[in-house]
């Protein structure tokens, strides 16, 4: 039996120009599913169900635990900072407000906003490195930015964050203005130049409505494929499936 899916926050967008693809992505609390206009109601229901399941699976695979976050921070420090930035703890936080992360240099504590969960790995890496750099330089002076120059995707990550901030200011749900932190000590933080989520497009070369969806290298989408290795494009958190030939619905 398939688990019950909440469709109350799902918006269906039909397009006559859309012929070969079905796409799903998050917009705040809503999930958008874009389908070809020619879909029957039965096909619509089937593909909404599939896309919601796959989008949820995709997001689960991209959300590391606190332990994994600490491990990643240590790896990044070794790779880009010579291992000299040594945090005592790195964990997710739900009360970062409009910040993407914060650092308390006095005790080596780093907190990453829960909103960063599900973003592309290279964006998460930038936020982690930003906070790690604050263990070496408290302010945002030239020495601080020189440290981040070692990371080749710094500008791209900042552009990603700034782009989504621009979008949220123009109609998308915006983060809370709450700015509290877990400790009373002063912290250095990532300013709100940013976004709620990563963009990922998964394309299947051959998709039949009765068959499982496979990505182009033949790995089944439900078998834990590493989505971090796929090209990033389109709306934030977007999942796109390309239809080769859509079998006619016998119930139409």
UniProtKB/TrEMBL annotation:
Biased composition regions of type Acidic residues, renumbered to the chain: 179-198
Domain of life according to the entry: Bacteria
InterPro entries: UTP_pyrophosphatase-like (IPR053136), YgjP-like_metallopeptidase (IPR002725)
Domain YgjP-like metallopeptidase: 94-151
Region feature (Disordered): 168-198
Family annotation (Pfam families): YgjP-like
Cited PANTHER family: UNCHARACTERIZED PROTEIN YGJP, UTP PYROPHOSPHATASE
Protein name: YgjP-like metallopeptidase domain-containing protein
